[in-house]
Specification:
four-stranded antiparallel beta sheet; two-stranded antiparallel ribbon; 3 helices; flat
Length: about 230
């Protein structure tokens, strides 16, 4: 496998998949702060948020002075990346309207890492639901007495998804999976917080992995994490 990395972007322009009455939504709301400045010491009443959807509005950076800084190496002005999202009534939340809705909404901010984690989890759970629904309605892959001895649920599901629902395919059972190949697949949830990209540098299958070096011959490390775009 030849791997070349320039940039990895996670687009979170549309977050209507996250509902406030879901586990992901409730967890995110518990960490958010209402933009009207009145959060009742973190004890805001959320019982009214039963049928709302999250609409991403943009991100911003908040600066704060570090009162504990007393050395030259201490950070005196800390920056915190925040995600601004809007709670819109699910019945009127629009995926094409940037604002999501025009009435009955509330604006909130939360740490960007928390928002990105909730977004990735929400998209994954939504995709799992779509794939399971498709399989139950379109695929006859349940092991029953009328299936012959050569029946394999794994092969059946692959044949059913292949060409129609590629995003539901985890692996191709007709091809032998190389050792470590599954670990090489990019998993966005692992990089919500900034961390070094793990590159499998083992060309055992004959396909070399491209590794970049700086002018001094040192191997270059790449890091992935959440960040605000130039347009917020």
């Amino acid at each position: 496998m030849k791997l070349s990395i320039a940039a990895v972007t996670l687009s979170i322009a549309s977050t209507s998949a996250i509902k406030t009455n879901s586990d992901v939504g409730r967890n995110l709301i518990s960490k958010a702060r209402h933009l009207d400045g009145n959060n009742n010491n973190g004890e805001e009443d959320t019982t009214w948020m039963q049928d709302f959807s999250l609409k991403f509005q943009g991100c911003r950076t908040a600066l704060s002075y570090n009162d504990n800084a007393d050395g030259d190496e201490d950070v005196r002005v800390a920056s915190t990346k925040l995600a601004h999202f809007r709670l819109c009534p699910s019945g009127t939340c629009s995926s094409w309207n940037g604002g999501g809705c025009t009435s009955g909404y509330g604006d909130y901010v939360v740490a960007l890492n928390d928002f990105a984690e909730a977004f990735v989890q929400g998209k994954r759970r939504q995709q799992e639901f779509v794939c399971q629904t498709y399989m139950l309605n379109k695929c006859d892959c349940t092991e029953t007495d009328d299936k012959d001895d050569n029946f394999s649920r794994e092969y059946c599901e692959y044949d059913c998804f292949n060409g129609k629902m590629q995003e539901c395919i985890d692996r191709n059972p007709y091809e032998e999976e190389q050792e470590g190949q599954r670990e090489e697949r990019f998993e966005a949830e692992r990089y919500v917080e900034c961390k070094q990209l793990e590159i499998q540098n083992n060309g055992d299958d004959g396909n070399a992995v491209q590794v970049d070096y700086d002018e001094y011959g040192n191997e270059i490390s790449y890091y992935i994490g959440t960040a605000c775009s130039d347009k917020g």
